[in-house]
Amino acid sequence: MLDPLAALTDAFTGFLFGKVESTRLPVRTSTGQAQAVYLPTAAPGLGDSGVIIGREVYSGKGYIYDPFQLYGQQLPAPHWLVLGESGNGKSALEKTYVLRQLRFRDRQVVVLDAQGEDGVGEWNLIAKALGITPIRLDPMAALNGGIKLNPLDPAIAATGQLALLRTIIEVAMGRALDERSGFALKVAHAYVTETTAERQPILTDIVERLRHPMPDSAEAMNVDVDDVRAWGLDVALVLDRLVDGDLRGMFDGPTTNGIDLDAPLIVFDLSHIDRNSIAMPILMAIVGVWLEHTWIRPDRVKRVFLVEEAWHIINSPFVAQLFQRLLKFGRRLGLSFVAVVHHLSDVVDGAAAKEAAAILKMASTRTIYAQKADEARATGLVLGLPRWAVEIIPTLTPGIAVWDVNGNVQVVKHLITESERPLVFTDSAMTQSSVDHTAQVEAEAVADAAAAAEVSLAKQLADDAVA
């Protein structure tokens, strides 16, 4: 039986406000629209710890990605491939991603900056803002006291030095070394490293020994010393290019003192090198091996190695083989390799198709910006993208990309904060409106979420460190 007081209260309330229970107006929609507004049916995210990228287009949810968090759980490898036509937002994504990674104290980034204007690399603004001096590799500057990197630096193991020398020669020659040339190089390298004291061995020492091999090296193989000299002649001519040719100055002396390998950001500025010359893959091989032996170490620091114009690596069989080893080795030491390429056809149809396929297989994360329809179909076939993703790639607007994280495929709108904008875009890029300004404003709305996510990850990493 209804309590008299309650009945009186209900009657009075109804008299003042009408019916107590409210009625929700009906909504007419389609099943396709309903799955976007009903979030449990939207695609699952990647977690709530890491670096915020932007918004997932169809659900409006924040999109957070961190290969170090996902590795071993949702990712079999922490490496990342970024594809797309120029002017669609690849560069903006790379730069904001690095800036947001560097908010964590246990992060370190190396960038091979192969693009630039006005005499400086594209990453010069960011380096300057962080108080970092880029390592500018320039043959002309190197002749006047500029930066030098020594392939025979004692910090690199003897086996690494020999592998690097072989790669330099094979890239320049466009073919593999034969057994005789390989033997001449090996004995020259062994003699130089064993007999040079009180200074770093340099390439000039190798060239000199190839031209004038020691009799002992010939006797060990029961051959004539003139034969060993003939076997090493082509090798000496190739290395002479680094000593006295168009690449002289950068690699024919001891490594420059003062290169800070403990800085949070290390930028190798390659913008003064002709991107279409043989110098670029040689440079990338030398820098890659030098970093492998001097930078990557078991100190629990999570490292990002970002390479612009990465087709110089993937399109050369010999350089690709070096980087394959680096990627496999780096996974055990917390290295995420980020390769930025304009067109996948630049590499899959090249001379290093086998090596390219192996590197692409290691990249469990793929981000694809707008491409022409034919290129999108070819990309989808190689990467195994779902049909719906392939169909929308040609329609994507700047700042929006298809993200495939080990089979989790979503369309993501990259957001940039106003504080990041001056560092991300150069003046010329600003005038091209390469990214919708609305996206910049919306980014401020997710800044708090980014900070919260990063704090969450930082706390977890701190807890891991204590454990």
UniProtKB/TrEMBL annotation:
UniProt key word ATP-binding: yes
Organism encoding this protein: Streptomyces fildesensis
A molecular-function term among this protein's GO annotations: ATP binding
InterPro entries, alphabetized: P-loop_NTPase, T4SS_component
Pfam families: AAA_10
Signal peptide bounds: none
Domain of life: Bacteria
Keywords for this protein: ATP-binding, Nucleotide-binding
Keyword Transferase: no
Protein name as catalogued: ATP-binding protein
